[in-house]
Amino acid sequence: MQSRIYNTKRNIVASYILMVVQILFSFISRTAIVYTLGADYLGLSSLFTSILQVLNIAESGFSSSVIYFMYKPIASGDTRQVCALLNYLRKVYRLVGFVILCVGILVTPFIEYLIKGDVPNDINIYVLYLLYLVNTSISYFLYAYKTSLLTAIQRLDLTKVANTITIVIQYGLQLIALFVFHNYYMFVVVMILGTGCVNVFTAYISKKKYPEYRCEGEINSVAKKDILKKVKGLLICNISGVTYNTFDSIIISAYIGLSSVAIYNNYFVIVSTVSSFIAIIRASMQASVGNSVASETLEKNYNDLKLWQFLFSLIATIFASCLICLCQPFMKVWMGEDMLLPFCDVVLLGMWFISGTVQHAFYLYLSAAGLWHELKWVYISSTFFNLILNIFLGKVMGMTGIILASLLAGIIFGLIWQCTIILKHYFKISSRDYLRQQGKYFSVAAFIVITAYASCGLIVAGGIEGLILKTIMCVVVSTLLIILIYHRSPHFTRSKQIFLKVIHKH
């Protein structure tokens, strides 16, 4: 447990550092492109990135599935099996890279039909697109599989270090390409070199730290069959997730208009950004939970699950309080009164955020136990349910109905059905007690959010000053209430112990 906590701590710290660096340099880079070349270049970048993200679906599932199969041999010290899995993943990655490259080339003649209006005079869209294609496929031909190894070993922080160092150098050279040479081709070439360097750097670290893991040997046909079975399920889950997140904006645009899409997306960006920070916690814990699933008893893992359920419920409560209390005053400062959603929509988004955040607890065991195949019908049903309900409620209730549809789909299929399947197939128990406890956490969260909102209402100051004061009030009230309500809970005591271990040195 001590080792897992320490690995999780390292992974979280490294992930947050990388995220901050990426956000900062991405903002500087985008600003520099507009300032030196013009906004049209950003449009081309977004278009090509979107096209190639679709092609990347070809990889969906393989790395996660192989990582799952690495947990047990790593925990038991079966180096030969890990090497065979690594060799298999390298072959798959090379095949995927070849497929992406070929399909990407076949798409090239149709690029001009995806661009409305003129393009910059100094840009050949076909050459630029092919450069972006090379950037997407190059990782698969180099050492991307080494990242999967480090993830399974619980050393995700090493890949983040490689990324952080490379990104700083890459963006520095890209800024020189923009400000000194005013050359977008050079900007993209540096990006390709950066992608290659990340993979080479990761491979070097992997070889230096874990020389015993090499690409050699073959896995048996049974293991290949199991991997492919899980890949199919995970592929469906990933595709469903991508389409699920696009429905809201499409329906809003069709029923209400583009201006409403812009307003909705302003709020969604805030919610998704907060969710991304929380997702880093889960991602940093994933390999440690995978190791626990491979080496510990079901009883031990179920007790851990209840602890993670408690922790993610507390995290969801504090952040939901901030979202519901602060979104409107923040939007007034950022976008003005004309770009506000009705407060009831903000409350629904806050509830949607809570339902999604608490799912991280059992999703840890979904990935660690490799239950993607068992969950494929949940994702398929959720996608169609969300689409149908979006259309119906969107027509009847407008924006509120569309947000409500996503909330209902998340609760019914994400929170209830997924939880039931995971507890049934891995823990071999009913989900009744787990969901009943989650209902209690929701009730406490509602009380805390309402109290925090009422407390923020006592602050009459507006603008940035009011936003700062309400932020302090919201965080303080939510935290104090959590301590007051849960201080005698054994989960609270254990959470405090883990937190103290995380913030102190190993």
In short, what is this structure?
The protein is mainly alpha-helical and about 500 residues long. It is built from 17 helices and no strands.
Architecture overview:
With 506 residues, the chain is an all-alpha fold. It has two domains: 2-219, no CATH class; 228-499, no CATH class. It contains 17 helices and no strands.
Structural class: mainly alpha
Which stretches are low in confidence, meaning pLDDT under 50 for 5 or more residues running? none
- Beta content comes to under 5%
Q: From the structure provided, what is the oligomeric state, counting identical versus distinct chains?
A: single chain
Overall 3D shape: globular
Order of helices and strands: HHHHHHHHHHHHHHHHH
- Count of separate DSSP helical elements: 17
Largest sheet: none
Could you tell me the radius of gyration in angstroms?
Answer: 24 Å
The total beta strand count reads 0
Span from first to last CA? 12 Å
Mean pLDDT: 80
The percentage helix is over 70%
For the record, the count of structural domains works out to: 2
